[in-house]
Amino acid sequence: MSTYKKEILNHICYTALVYGRINKKLNLQLSNWEIEKMLLEIIQNTKEINFEKRGKNIYISNESGDIRITINSFTIRVITVDRIKQK
Fold it and tell me: Taking the CB of residue 23, how many other CB atoms lie within 10 A of it?
């Protein structure tokens, strides 16, 4: 089994632009620190089975929070966060 979760928790990073992108996509108005805290809690509470590597990205799907986090697998940098569309 992979250790994506541990690797991400230890090395996650952000760009200056991603904070605005996350606020826009989730329709929020959080500070950078609040976004980092929110994502850290989501990642910690998501089971490793919901971490999927496709190509260069890792997708973390947290259905209880209706959120999917996209992370670059090489840099462990957050790319974006999307709402999971309910079926």
Answer: 17
Q: What is the CATH number of domain 4-83?
A: 3.30.2310
SS (H, E, C) the chain: CCCHHHHHHHHCECCHHHHHHHHHHHCCCCCHHHHHHHHHHHHHCCCHHHEEEECCEEEEEECCCCEEEEEECCCCEEEEEEECCCC
Which residues are bridge partners to 77 per DSSP? 13, 72
Return the pLDDT at 85: 80
Answer yes or no: pTM beyond 0.90. yes
What was the pLDDT predicted at 2?
61
Please report the pLDDT score of residue 86 as a whole number. Answer: 66
Residues in the chain where the model's pLDDT stays below 50: 1
* Distance, CA of 10 to CA of 17 (rounded, Å): 21
